[in-house]
Design goal:
By secondary structure, this protein is of the alpha/beta class. It is 37% helix and 22% strand. The protein has 13 helices and 15 strands.
Length: 378
Amino acid sequence: MARIRLGMVGGGNDAFIGGVHRIASRIDDRFDLVAGALSSTPEKSAASAEALGIPRSYGSFEEMAEAEAAREDGIEAVSIVTPNHVHAAAAKAFLAKGIHVICDKPLTSTLEDAEALAASVAEAEALFILTHNYTGYPMIRQAREMVAAGDLGEIRIVQAEYPQDWLTAPAENEGVKQAEWRTDPARSGAGGSVGDIGTHAHNLACFVSGLEVESLAADLQCWGAGRKLDDNAHMMLRFAGGARGMLWSSQVAPGNENALKLRIYGDKGGLEWSQEDPNYLWFTPLGEPKRLITRNGAGASEASQSVSRIPGGHPEGYLEGFATIYNEAADAIRAVQGGASRESAMGVLPDITAGMAGMRFINACVTSSANDAAWTKL
C-alpha cells in the first residue's frame, strides 16, 4: 500500500518532539514526510526543511493548508507538534481542507479553544487523532484487555503517577527551550505539570481501567521561584461506578526521569506497570503468587502481540509506542478513504473525546486547587 503523504507543523530541526514524531512515522514505513511549516518564521522553517530533506517548506500553517489542499499530490495528513497554544488554530485549518490531523497532546492551551476545535472535528470529514503514545505500548494493551475481560473483577482502586525531576532547577531561565514554553501560561495553558504529564497519567488510567473520572480534589504547587504554573500536583479521584484513585504529577522530584506508573486493583486481582520497565506487566490474582507477563512472551495476549514488533526480551518502548499510534492512524486513514465511517476506522486510537477529557481534567485540577482542593466535577 502506498505511503501516506504527511506534513508537519512545528518540529523544526532542533525540536525534540518533532524528531520523535518523524522517527515514529517511519518505523512501520507508512508515511512520507513531504511538506512542513516547521518554525515560527519562513527562514527558520526553510532551513529546517533543507536540513531534514523535506521537499516543500512553508512560512505558516495557513499557507501550507491552502497550498497542499490545492495540489494533486498534496499531503493527506498533518502532524501538529507545536506548543499547545497553536494546536487549535492549526488543526482547524487542515480539517477545513479535508486533511487528516495527528496532534500532540494536550489538546489545546484553553478549554475554550478545545471546545471550538471539538466543534470543527464534529463537522469535518477528516480524522482527528491525539498522540497519547503510552496507549500504544504492548503491555498497556494487554492490561486494558485483561481489565475488560474481568480478570481483575470489579475495579476498586486506580493509582497513577508521573514524576520527573527536570524542572527542579529553573531550567526556563537557563535557555532550555522546552522549559521556556512549558512554564509559560500563554503557550502551555493553565496547567503546568498537570497539563504536560498529568494528562498522560489521567489518560492511561482511564484507557486501561475503562472508567471515567467524575470528580477530583487537587492540590497544585509551584516550587520553582517565580514560576507561574504548577510543577507538582496531588489529586484524589472519584470514578464513575464508584472506584477511587490517586494521581501524582511532578517535575521537581529528584531521581525521577520519566517514572510513569499505573496500578489497578479489583476484587479479584491487581495489575502493576511501569513505563521505565515497559515490557513487563505484573498480575496478582487474589490469594495467588504474583505473575510476570512479558511482551511477546508466554501469556502475552493477542492485543499486545498485535502491536509488538520484535521477539520477547528485546526492549520496546517510547518510540515504538508512538509508532503504534502512527501505524494505526495510517490504517484508519486508508479505511476512511476506502469508505469506512470515522467511528469504525478509529478503533482504540485517542481521539477528540480523549482530548476533551484531558482538557476538563486540567481545568478541574486548577479550579479545585484554587478552591482549597474542593471536590470539582469534570
